[in-house]
Amino acid sequence: MNLNFMPSRQLALYAGKMFLTRSFAVLMALVLVLMALDLLGESGKILKVEGNGEAELWRYVSLRVPMLVSRFLPFSVLLGALIAFTSLNQHSEVVSMKAAGLSAHQILAPMIVASLAVAALLFMFNETVVVKATRTLNAWESEDYGPIPPDSGILSNVWVRDGEDLVRARLVLGRGKGARLRGVTFYDRDYGTLARVIEAERATQQRGGWSLEKVRIYDARTNMVLRQGSIQLLQGVEPQRFTLAQVDPAERDIHALRGAIAELEQAGRPTEEAVTGWWHKISGPLSTMLMPLLAATAAFGLARSGKVLLRATIGMALGFAYFVADNFSMALGNIGAYPPFLAAWAPFFLFLLIGELVLIRQEE
């Protein structure tokens, strides 16, 4: 058995370079097209805010592009691998490699190594750029593209229940004793019936409760609107109720998410979604390693047989099936139907086995 998976350094560099250039070319084309379509839909909402202009459009692009890159990089790797394998097959380069004594795994090895490097880069990109962009963009959208304070701990669109009453904060800034609320709406319910709606521009902590400022009160019983400078509400509602009410794994890096999970466990809150998201921060980038394996069906078989397009279609179908299975498994993990580890890793290992089975069958 030949355990040297890359016997030729020059051939490995050739295959790896072909795979990477095509993958990143596909990624660039996808991001440009999707960003243009997204900007067409959002530019009207951004520009209708007084004071917003071209700078805000570019700011939206700078926040949205990292999210698109993170989401579509594995798909671009799949298409890049299919294009590279199809090209190698059509020019009979795969036949030459096999005639030189290379196995299917040796032909595939350079692309697997390159995809592992892409996975490492994607993980670092997600942890350093994407989480910040996602958090800032979500907060900006919750303010309808109005001005938001530059705060690294922004949470947006947070709901908290206080007995029968409901509280919504458009923005939660800071943590612990320094927590502040922006865009507060308090729904005062009496035996299941809405009695008052209290809106405030901001809320700060006071001893035993919160001080709401610039208040507008709608009384459903009298159908009247009153305005007050400030009122005291939410007695006994701790700031942790707001900071733990919404733990979005996409908005936190892996270390911050681990801390939030520990806080949720101490508070006796459900942790399934957060734990599933934590595991998926690792399994998600590693999905790029699967793409060359799933696309490898396009590399083998004679080009003159006329089945190259069919083989490429099968490889694309396998890749799409992985993305569907991954999203479905994550949804089940978020609601607690699957254990978090299984929800994040089951699709990865399942399609790893499927890819290996297909490759071994082709090798035979």
Automatic annotation (TrEMBL):
- What Pfam families has UniProt attached to this entry? LptF_LptG
> Which keywords appear in this protein's UniProt record, sorted alphabetically?
Cell membrane, Membrane, Transmembrane, Transmembrane helix
Query: Where does the chain cross the membrane?
Result: 20-40, 68-87, 107-125, 308-325, 337-360
Stated membrane topology is: Multi-pass membrane protein
Which InterPro entries does the UniProt record give?
Answer: LptG (IPR030923), LptG/LptF_permease (IPR005495)
GO cellular component annotations of the record: ATP-binding cassette (ABC) transporter complex
Q: Which GO terms describe its biological process?
A: lipopolysaccharide transport; transmembrane transport
Q: Answer yes or no on keyword Transcription regulation.
A: no
Q: Where does this protein chiefly localize?
A: membrane
Please indicate if the UniProt record lists Transmembrane helix as a keyword: yes
Cell location: Cell membrane
Q: Cross-referenced PANTHER family, in alphabetical order?
A: LIPOPOLYSACCHARIDE EXPORT SYSTEM PERMEASE PROTEIN LPTG, SLR0882 PROTEIN-RELATED
Q: What is this protein called?
A: LPS export ABC transporter permease LptG
Q: What organism is the protein native to? A: Sphingomonas xanthus
